[in-house]
Amino acid sequence: MPVSYDNRPSQLMPESGTPDNVEAMMQALQGNLREKPISYLLKVAAYYEATGHLYIGTGAFNVKVQFGLGKPVNASSPLGKGEETIVDLFTWTDGQLVFELGRQPESVNILESAEGLVTKGEAFLANLKFLEDNYITESSFLIRSAKLSKRKLEAIVNLSSLTNHQALLDMYGNIYGTLNLADVAERMGFKRSEWVAAAAELLRLGLLLAPDGRSLQVFDTSSADLTQDEAPVVEPQKKLSEQSQATVPTPPTDQPKQWPSEPRPVSSKTFKVGVPEMRHLEFSHLENSLKVLSNPDTELLSDETFIFMLSHEFARAHRFGSILTLAAFCISAENATDNLISLKDLHVITKALLETKRETDLLGHFGEQSFAYLLPNVDSAQTCIMVDRINQSLPTLLPTLGHLRPMLHFGISTAPTDATSIVALSTMAQANMRMAAEKRVNRLAI
Question: pTM of the entire structure?
C-alpha cells in the first residue's frame, strides 16, 4: 500500500544534519507524481533547503523546476515559464521525477514562496473542478445574471475572498455573451489560473450564469443589498440608443414616418460634423505633444504615459504573436550622498540615454526611482547586447559625472518567452533589476 505524502513530509524525513539527510532528500524528490504530488515536492524541497533541478514528466515533455535553498526560483516547460508552470502541475496525476542535486538556478522567474504556490495551486485545482463539474470549459459562453448598478456590482464583488477585486470587475465587464472564456482571457491578458479563478468566483457570487442559464451561486450576497434605488448599469450602445429614442417623437400612425424637423437636443454641448479642413502636421506639433507626455526634469515619458504605452504595446504583441522586451533599470552612484543626485545631473544621464534608443523604442519613468526601455520586436539576447553597450559607453556618455561614478542596473523580461501577462512581465523585470542592483552588476547573466 503506497504511503501518503500529501500533508506531513516531516514525518518521513530524518532530522536535518544526520548522515542520511541527503539520501533521504534524494529519495523523497524522485519517483512519480502518482505518489508524490507537486504540493508534497514543494514542502520537501523547503524542508531540506534543497538546491538543484527537478525534472517532471517524460522524455518528450518535461517541466523543469529550479530550487535554491529550498525555494522554487525558476520553472519552465515547452508551453511557458514561471509561477503558472508550477500551478499547472497541480492538475498532473502522472509523471516521472528526477532530481539533480546541487545545480544552481539559472535565473529568476518566480517570486512567490513555496507556501504561496501551494495555496495558489490548490485553489486553481478547486476552481477548475468547480467549472468542470458544471461542464464549463474555455470554449463556454457565460452570461450576466441581471442588470446591476455600479455600486451594487462593487458591493457584491467586495464580498469575494479573492484579493484582486479589480480582476473580477474587469472580467465581468468583458462578458457580453459574444466572447467565450478563452477570448475574454486573451483580451485581458489573463493566464489560465487567473481566468479560471475569476470565472469560478463570479459564478459563485451569482453575478454570472452557466451557459444553459443556471445559477451556480453559493455565496450569500444579501449583505451587499443597498438601501437606495439605483439605475441599472446598461451598455453604452444601448444607453445611447435609448437617449436617441427619447429625443425623437413618435409620429401618428396615420401619417408617414419621418424625422422631426427640430429634434430636442440631448445636451447643450455640440460637435461639428462634415468634411473638415486639412490638418497640417509640423515637427513643432510633435515636439509639443511629446513635451505634454514627458517629465520636464528628465525629458523622458512620464510614468503614466509609459504605463499606457506598455499596455498598448503588450496588447499589440499579444494580438500579432510578436515579442516585446521590458528593460527596467535604476541608477546607483557610488559617491552620491544619501543616494541623492541633483536634477541637473539626472538630466545629463537621461539625455544621454535618449540618444541610445531607436525611433521605435520607448524610454520613460517606471515608478518613482526607476526607469525602463520598452523594446518592440527585440528579444532578451538583443536587449543584453544593447544594455552592455550602454554600460560600456557610460564614461564616454557622461564625461562630466565621473565624480559620482554612476552605474545602471538592468532587469530584463521578454514576452511571451519569460511572461505571458503584463503583470508578470513587469514583476519579473523589476525583480531582475533589484537582484542586479543588490549584486552590484549591470545585469543578470542569461
Answer: 0.49
